[in-house]
Amino acid sequence: MKLRLLAAALAATVVLPLGIANAADLEVTHWWTSGGEAAAVAELAKAFDATGNHWVDGAIAGSGGTARPIMVSRITGGDPMGATQFNHGRQAEELVQAGLMRDLTDVATKENWKEIIKPSSLLDSCTIDGKIYCAPVNIHSWQWLWLSNAAFKTAGVDVPKNWDEFVASAPALEKAGIVPLAVGGQPWQSAGAFDVLMVAIAGKDTFNKVFGDKDEAVAAGPEIAKVFKAADDARKMSKGSNVQDWNQATNLVITGKAGGQIMGDWAQGEFQLAGQKAGTDYTCLPGLGVNEIISTGGDAFYFPLLKDAEKSKAQEVLASTLLNPKTQVAFNLKKGSLPVRGDVDLAAANDCMKKGLDILAKGNVIQGTDQLLSADSQKQKEDLFSEFFASSMTPEDAQKRFAEIIASAD
C-alpha cells in the first residue's frame, strides 16, 4: 500500500503538539497478549500511570502479522491511537514517509538517546532522513533453542548441548511419545526458525550476504542448501505439534510434551510465569549451541500525529518513560528481553538472560530480518516457509523459491 497519497487528505486533521502539561488518557496498541507478555506490559502501564497520565490498553490478540494491518488501517483511516508497537525496522516506513507519524527528535536529543541506546543500530532503525520516529523499548533475539529438561529425562537421554545432538535425540523423544520440536502454525514462526538455522549453520557472514546484500547467488548456493537440509530435519521433528500460537508451542516445552522450541527470548516470559527456573527446569542454547550470535531486533513504539494537544504532550511523556532506567529493568525482566540502555543494572537477570547479555557485550550480534527486509519481502519469506513446513515441498524447490525472493527483495 502506498501511503503518501493519503497524507494530504489527512494533513488537515493533524495539529502539532503544544506544550500543555495536563494529564491525558493515551491508547497504546500492541500484540503482547500471552501471559508473560501481559505481565511485562503491565510494568509499562504502571510506569506511565505514575506520571499522572493513563495507559489505555489496546491489546490486539494474535501475532504482529494480525495486529499490524489493523494498526496501519486505523492510522491511515484517520483514527490514530496514541502510540503503537512495531518491530525495529521498516514496518512503519511508509507511515513515516506519508507524514502520519510524529517526529521524536527533540525528545531523543533532550534525553541523549544516541548515547544511551545500545547498539546504535536500534536507533538507526528509528531514523529516517535524519529524524527519529520511534522509541526502542527492548532487544529481542531470535537465536535460541529452548529445551525441556523433564522431556529428555523421560526419554532417557542427556539434554543436548547443540543442534546436532538435538536432532540425534529425536528418535528417543518420539519413542517416549514426546514431540521433538514444537513449531506453531503462524507463518512467522517457521520463517524465524529458518533464519535462526541460517546463522547457526551457515554463519554470520552468509546471513548478512543473503539478507543484507540480497545476494541471490549465495541464497542459491551450497551453504544455504545445508540450511535447507536442517530446515527439513526441523520440519520432520515438528510433526505432531498441532498448535497455532507461539506461546502454545512454548507451553508444550514447559509441560514436557515437546523436547524443544526454536523461538526468540520472549519465550522466557512464559517459563517465568509458569514458575520454571533457567538451568534447572529448562535449558537455553543461544545460537542453537553452534554459533553464539544473537540478533538485535526487538520492539519500539511509534507515535501517530494527533490533533489533541494534551494527548500529544502525553506522547512525549510516554516516550521518555519507556527509556527510563527503572522502566527498562522492570519491563525487560518480565519480558525476557534485553534492555536498550547500556547503563542499567540487571543483577536480577536469570541464567539465560545473562548469556544474552554476555553475547551482546562481546558484540556477537546481527540485525534482525525486520531491519534488513521490507515488510513485503518479509511476508513473501513467511509465506514460503509456512508452506514448506506444512507440505512435502522438497528442500531443493524451496531453496529455488527462496533465492527468487532474495533476488527481488528490497
Descriptive notes:
Helix content is 50%, strand content 12%. The two termini are 15 Å apart. It is globular. α2 (35-49) links the parallel β1 and β2 (54-59). It contains 21 helices and 13 strands. It has 410 residues and is an alpha/beta fold. α10 crosses α20 and α20 (375-390) packs antiparallel against α21 (395-407). Strands 2-1-3-12-6 form a five-stranded mixed β-sheet, sandwiched between helices. Strands 8-9-7-10 form a four-stranded mixed β-sheet.
Secondary-structure topology with pairs:
Elements: H1 4-11, E1 25-30, H2 35-49, E2 54-59, H3 64-76, E3 83-87, H4 93-97, H5 105-110, H6 113-116, H7 120-124, E4 127-128, E5 131-132, E6 134-136, E7 144-148, H8 149-155, H9 163-175, E8 179-181, H10 187-202, H11 204-212, H12 216-219, H13 222-237, H14 246-254, E9 258-262, H15 267-273, E10 282-286, E11 294-295, E12 299-302, H16 309-322, H17 325-335, H18 351-362, E13 365-366, H19 369-372, H20 375-390, H21 395-407
Parallel strand pairs: 1-2, 1-3, 8-9, 11-13
Antiparallel strand pairs: 3-12, 4-5, 6-12, 7-9, 7-10
* Alpha plus pi helix count: 21
Which structural class fits the helix and strand makeup? Answer: alpha/beta
Poorly predicted runs of 5 or more residues:
1-20
Write out the CATH superfamily name of the largest domain. Periplasmic binding protein-like II
